[in-house]
Specification:
68% helix; 262 residues; mainly alpha
């Protein structure tokens, strides 16, 4: 019987992240010295038929002669999901900035708690009060996100402009609802001040900022940065972020209704 052909190298890839891209380059650098001459000869044979009369050894003479420090090859990755892969070593900055927006949202709620203690908006109906609080947090996040997006474009980790704006706007909306929900659970200012550093460390460890720990997937889905960071690579997570925001909003309305009744 004919033996079944087995691939020389098999690579099983998880979702795209910095560690994967570094590993891919490391693997390519190891395989390069073995595969480069054959890639070169294949290119010569297919693209430069005028030198087909030369022997393989003669063709490889130029390959061997090529100056050290320069390259005949350009490294690129097939099926790259992001439109700009330049500066991916800096991509954890995107994760850290996404967490910074959560910190900012929670910080704004501290002022909202202080306003509630002073009864500044006690004369407003409940739904109008929620609207004012939501607008306050959202506008603060939008102002900060302008500088975040400018930073992305400066360091070269940006997507196309429309996608970048769309992602950040919906992310600000998601963080706004998340922050207001946390405020309703921990309506004491001192407790919330102590909670913010804890949540920050938790998000850095669980969310795919530096590494995507797959076994923590369900815990990742609790926090908004997960949907934003994975939404960069997969459109499905952008939709999940919208659904996540909707669930949080229903939870927020439910908690406020219960507290109003009590």
């Amino acid at each position: 019987p004919v033996a079944k052909k087995q691939p020389l190298v098999s690579v099983i890839e998880p979702e795209s992240n910095v560690l994967l891209k570094l590993s891919r380059e490391k693997l390519s650098s190891v395989l390069f010295k073995f595969g480069a001459p054959y890639v070169y000869l294949n290119f010569i044979d297919s693209k430069l038929p005028m030198v087909n009369h030369l022997s393989e050894e003669e063709k490889l003479e130029y390959f061997e002669w090529f100056p050290e420090g320069e390259s005949l090859f350009k490294f690129s990755t097939a099926n790259e999901k992001t439109e700009n892969s330049v500066g991916y070593l800096l991509s954890p900055l995107r994760g850290l900035f996404s967490i910074l927006l959560v910190i900012a949202g929670l910080s704004v709620t501290l002022f909202l708690i202080e306003d509630n203690e002073k009864q500044l908006f006690v004369w407003l109906p409940s739904w109008k009060k929620l609207l004012v609080e939501g607008a306050t947090v959202f506008l603060a996040l939008v102002n900060l996100s302008v500088f975040v997006i400018l930073t992305f474009f400066i360091v070269g980790i940006n997507l196309n402009f429309f996608r970048e704006i769309l992602l950040i706007v919906f992310y600000c909306f998601s963080v706004t609802i998340f922050s207001l929900l946390i405020k309703e659970f921990f309506f004491n200012k001192k407790i919330l001040v102590m909670l913010i550093p804890f949540l920050t460390l938790l998000m850095i460890g669980i969310c795919p900022v530096f590494f995507d720990l797959g076994f923590l997937k369900f815990l990742q889905l609790i926090f908004p940065p997960t949907y934003y960071l994975k939404g960069i690579y997969e459109n499905s997570y952008f939709l999940y972020m919208i659904c996540f925001s909707g669930v949080l909003f229903l939870g927020l309305l439910g908690i406020r209704k219960i507290k109003h009744c009590v």
